[in-house]
Amino acid sequence: MSKVHDKAILTCALTGVLTHPQQHPVPVTPAQMASEARDAFNAGASIMHVHLRAQEPGFGHLPSWDPDVAEAVVGAIRAACPGVVINLTTGVVGRDISGPLACLRRVRPEAAACNAGSLNYLKLRDNGQWAWPPMVFDNPVAKVQAMLEVMNELHIHPEFECFDVGIVRSVGMYLKAGLFSGVPELNFVMGVASGMPCDADLLALLPRYAPPNAVWQTTLIGRAEIWPVHQKTAELGGMLRTGLEDTFYLPGGERAAGNGVLIEALAACARRAGREIASPAEARSRLGLRAAA
Predict the structure, then answer these.
(1) Is 156 helix (H, G, I), strand (E, B) or coil?
(2) For FRET with 237, which of 63, 126, 173, 277 sits at 20 to 30 Å CA-CA?
């Protein structure tokens, strides 16, 4: 598992899935994604977690699985951030994973998210009404295995997204069953209303359930309350992620104007814990990634 003296790998989650760009400052176009990535890169992020948005006017709040969009966005980010590590999303509801796989094949990222288990994806408003119709984010083993087969074929490193403790434990089973090899990397997603809460006491327990020699990081969803848990992540030796996908708020509660200032705040957490910031080359070495193209 990650040790406290490890350099901290910073990941920026640039835009997310459905946030409307007319309501929040999320990037959509290749130029916007590249500009936001550059700000985050300059602040210390060595990995960019990339979601793709529909590019037609007025549709920037909807996801896209168009390989041409993937190529344009990822190409722009790579040009703006020489040496950056691309981590491409693969999260999709339902059995049809052809879109994510086509994007993986087109852009050949060094890493990609792999949602490691299913979750009832729920949110309840204060008035007792559902924020959206209750849904299942379905990631059965057959779907996970199909994703991993293509990642293995393309030499893409999987980052396992874990929304609950049982999903954390499942990653060790995937490793033992031979579904993947290499350095296990787990992302503890905390703050989804029906998943693990953003809780520093719970976080302290989670690394023991990861496979031996795993690297782990946290994705923390929320407002100013997430920042003490980011600090705990840094102190426990975890890797750090934030960005406009995860929060719009800085530690003091003020709204973030973009991804760069969020990564600056994340880097400060690492430095307060006595840890240096990993370069892209150091991130590749720690995660066992293939050499940059």
Answers:
(1) coil
(2) 173
User: Is the Cβ–Cβ distance between 88 and 70 less than 8 Å?
Assistant: yes
* Assigned domain for 234 exists: yes
H-type helices in 109-219, by residue range?
A: 141-154, 165-176, 200-205
> What is the 8-class DSSP label of residue 137?
E
> Could you tell me where the beta strands, DSSP code E, fall in the chain?
10-13, 47-50, 85-88, 111-115, 119-121, 135-137, 157-162, 185-190, 215-220, 239-242
Q: CATH number, domain at 125?
A: 3.20.20.70
Q: How many domains does the chain have?
A: 1
Backbone angles phi, psi at 95, to 5 degrees: -80, -25
The SS3 assignment for 18 reads coil
Contacts of 50 (CB under 8 A, 6+ apart): 14, 15, 33, 73, 74, 77, 86, 87, 88, 89, 109
In a domain, 4, yes or no: no
42 occurs within a structural domain: yes
Burial class of residue 128, CB neighbours in 10 A (0-12, 13-18, 19+): exposed
Q: Which domain holds residue 193?
A: 10-287
User: Under a CB-based contact definition with an 8 Å cutoff, are residues 141 and 95 in contact?
Assistant: no
- Distance CA(41)–CA(35), nearest Å, equals 10
Q: Is residue 3 part of a domain?
A: no
Q: What is the pTM of this model?
A: 0.96
Predicted pLDDT at 1: 55
Instruction: Find the mean pLDDT for residues 6-33.
Output: 90
Tokens found for residue 161: 């997204």
pLDDT averaged over every residue in the chain = 95
Distance CA 143, CA 114 (A): 10
The pLDDT tens digits for 130-144 are 999 999 999 999 999
In angstroms, the first-to-last Cα distance of the chain is: 28
pLDDT in tens, 43-92: 999 999 999 999 988 777 889 999 999 999 999 999 999 999 999 999 99
